[in-house]
Amino acid sequence: MSEDILSVGIDVGTSTTQLVFSQLTIDNTASIASIPIVRIVDKKVIYKSDIHFTPLISYKEIDGLGVRKIIEKEYERANIKPEEVGTGAVIITGETARKENAKEILNNLSGLAGDFVVATAGPDLEGIIAGKGAGAAIFSKEKLTTIANLDIGGGTTNIAVFKDGEVIDTACLDIGGRLIKVENNKISYISDKIKKLATSIGLEINIGDTADKNKIKKITDRMAVLLEEVVGIRPPSDDLEYIVTNKDLKRDYKIEYISFTGGVADYIKASEEMDFKYGDIGVILGESIFNSKVVKEKKIYKPIETIRATVVGAGSHTTDISGSTIYYSEDVLPIKNIPILKLTEEDEKSSYERISEIISDKINWFNLENEKQLVGLAMKGVRNSSFDEVQSLAKAITKGMKEMVQSNFPLIVILENDLAKALGQNINIQLNHKKNLVCIDSIKVENGDYIDIGKPIASGTVVPVVVKTLLFGY
């Protein structure tokens, strides 16, 4: 029998805070004699909130009460009570995730309703979520092409590159529409990085200066050139290295398409002489990008969502049952809200030594201000693997997940193919039986998903799994 579930997505970003309510229809798609397999069979947005400026007490401190009041007001406008919401996601993104009390905001909002995914999205994960919410991931899969989604917000530009539907690279730059703010035609704020960038092109700009569009456009034009550099149109400069937030793109592949999301995306067009309408440089930055080689020399994919890409991508769930050949430590389960790092099929074709290096590199996507968080490693896994192959893979995973092994977190491995029990036993041997471990199979997840793993059922042979995936993965 089908059932409707109300889902909410909440995005607290550098510039804006917004909310989306959706109705999900779930149904058991298995035959009568089979274990239930619950899937989302229909999904529909039923309410989109206004787009609110994220309230701040100071540049470094979010107004937590102000954010909560915004969300509560939107619940009222939608005529939805918190207890009516069955699932959803609260995502804190961009510069806002760096603010001093971001964790407090997460805790406050998570209490509003439902059993949410609640996460501070680092720049890599934010870029992936935005790219999927925009439809860029599925576009790359359908067209068998490579596309870079540039999610340009108030404080950062988060980039996710998709090839044939898979994430192959990410980056983040300190380029955004609110890195210079304007009040009463005077500059009221300028980030340190942008001030230095201005100096590099021979400009001096200070708080209190008159907001001169021609002068500021020289800065946004330079930002646009840096975007040309990051996607491989121009050779990288010293300025690009400086403006990179966490890491640069590898650029050992060709980007065929570009898509734009985020608040600035709607202003990547010919100038409408709006200048500082929103008290920042977002409109002027959009104009500079419109006139850049990024737009003129790359194929442009028009995304399904722009400013709402992240919030539309912010959560629903499917419930599944693991395979019956699994391995888990006692007393670890249940465990909730595990972000997923999935290896691509190309990754899995690499040597075992290379696989460990790939895992070690990609797990850094989930680091926040040098703080580690629990991450689940997902992969397809080879069917009918030999003992030597399983043993080698166990060694590669243990080496690649060294950060998890050395932490207090359990080691989580999720496989599509029937391999979990043998692999889990071998990993346990590699860990000298001294580490909590969960290794399950018959579960398909993607980068950007989160999962809950419940207590074992059916005499301990299987575990229920909730996959909290992007609502509109298209």
UniProtKB/TrEMBL annotation:
InterPro entries: EutA, FtsA/MreB. It comes from the Bacteria. NCBIfam families: PRK10719.1-3. This is Ethanolamine ammonia-lyase reactivating factor EutA. It comes from Tissierella simiarum.
